[in-house]
């Protein structure tokens, strides 16, 4: 089987020029977050002897963030390993990293990808997978590590819009907001449809208090998302809804929830998590949507107890508690405790020090047991970025802790905590609504 060179100068072990083209399309679709990304599953059948295509198909399963798909990734990885006999060191290292990913060995996967891009800085698929693994480990927690990785790749990738979108997000997670915005805008100069750069700008604008501008920009970008991969459509719409929440524009918030976030692909974990994250904030703002809660709970219940990352498990625990499914909540908490007791890196670094208590606290938040939730979160409040997710996503848990402090009658402490967690910005109508709980 011949060795080819991609347009980015990377050697690949592929069956044919058609297989090479499939590899290059995957990079374009992954960096652009296009719906055509799912074509990799058809191409995996078409090119069974090309290891990267098999590894990319496994990756597509792992991005689903659900235990059944994690299992379905295995045959692709078995096939990828069978085909590595003539592959380059880069391809071997990439397959090994995805094997670690499939086993939920996120740090080992990251270390291999970080090593891979030292010698092959133009491998933007490896960089993009790293970005997702930082999310699994806590993107805010890994912010400096993420930025260090992207800065190493900067010279080799110039003004590639997909790379700039990653670089911009790494800047944002490290609170370098001006540089984040500049990188995102450079990306959009070349590709106005780049949804990950829209995503960075959503983060920057809300964290710097530019709410009115955020509303305008997200409304300008929103038409692009309908032609993007469903996951980024739902997630960017969630960011859009956060701006409406800040303004307490309940009608606009409800419209985005029902038209863009929830109900288009309700079986997708990403859609479920974005819906939960918005519904939970709505609960705290006194704007509940019980009909949507019931639908979301029915779809996410099968995933409770999977314990892929605490971030997901916490959302499930809150949802099940919120909808009165006590047995399912207890099962999720017990599984989190079991995960924390295992002897692996992720158990020792994430589940034991913060993950298990966090999941239990989410169950108590959902039940309305504020005092118990506070007692669990107080010792780990500074560790919350380690449960997974981004800074904006983890703000939900900080807000929930504030809410529980206020409901527990600890209003002075709640006020002090709010001052710590609220971005340095002018108070919004939502801030006023939250702070009124301390009167």
UniProtKB/TrEMBL annotation:
Keywords: Repeat, TPR repeat. Signal peptide: none annotated. It comes from the Bacteria. Transmembrane segments: none annotated. Belongs to the TTC38 family. PANTHER family: TETRATRICOPEPTIDE REPEAT PROTEIN 38. This is Tetratricopeptide repeat protein 38. It comes from Cerasicoccus arenae.
């Amino acid at each position: 089987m011949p060795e080819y060179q991609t347009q980015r100068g990377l050697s690949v072990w592929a069956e044919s020029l058609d297989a090479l083209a499939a590899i290059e399309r995957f990079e374009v679709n992954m960096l652009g977050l296009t719906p055509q990304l799912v074509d990799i599953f058809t191409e995996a059948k078409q090119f069974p002897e090309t290891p990267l295509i098999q590894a990319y198909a496994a990756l597509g399963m792992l991005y689903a963030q659900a235990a059944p798909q994690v299992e379905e990734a295995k045959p692709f990885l078995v096939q990828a390993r069978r085909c590595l006999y003539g592959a380059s060191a880069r391809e071997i290292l990439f397959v090994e990293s995805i094997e670690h990913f499939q086993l939920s060995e996120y740090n080992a996967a990251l270390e291999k990808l970080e090593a891979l891009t030292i010698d092959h800085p133009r491998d933007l698929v490896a960089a993009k997978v790293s970005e997702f693994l930082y999310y699994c480990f806590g993107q805010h927690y890994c912010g400096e590590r993420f930025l260090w990785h992207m800065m190493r790749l900067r010279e080799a990738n110039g003004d590639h819009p997909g790379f700039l979108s990653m670089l911009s997000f790494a800047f944002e997670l490290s609170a370098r907001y001006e540089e984040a915005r500049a990188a995102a805008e450079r990306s959009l100069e070349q590709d106005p449809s780049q949804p990950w750069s829209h995503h960075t700008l959503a983060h920057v604008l809300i964290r710097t208090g530019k709410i009115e501008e955020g509303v305008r920009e997200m409304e300008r970008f929103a038409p692009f998302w309908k032609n993007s991969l469903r996951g980024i459509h739902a997630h960017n719409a969630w960011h859009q809804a956060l701006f409406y929440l800040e303004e307490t524009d309940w009608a606009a918030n409800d419209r985005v929830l029902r038209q863009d976030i929830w109900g288009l692909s309700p079986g997708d974990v990403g859609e479920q998590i974005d819906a939960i994250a918005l519904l939970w904030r709505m609960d705290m703002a006194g704007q509940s949507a019980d009909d949507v809660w019931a639908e979301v709970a029915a779809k996410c219940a099968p995933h409770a107890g999977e314990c892929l990352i605490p971030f997901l498990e916490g959302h499930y625990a809150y949802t099940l508690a919120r909808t009165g499914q006590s047995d399912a909540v207890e099962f999720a908490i017990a599984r989190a405790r079991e995960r924390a007791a295992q002897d692996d890196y992720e158990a020792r670094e994430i589940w034991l020090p913060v993950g298990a208590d966090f999941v239990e606290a989410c169950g108590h938040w959902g039940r309305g047991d504020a005092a118990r939730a506070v007692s669990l979160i107080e010792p780990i409040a500074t560790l919350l970025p380690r449960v997974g997710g981004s800074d904006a996503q983890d703000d939900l848990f900080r807000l929930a802790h504030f809410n529980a402090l206020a409901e527990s009658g600890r209003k002075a402490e709640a006020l002090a905590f709010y001052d710590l967690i609220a971005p340095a910005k002018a108070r919004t109508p939502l801030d006023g609504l939250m702070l009124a709980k301390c009167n």
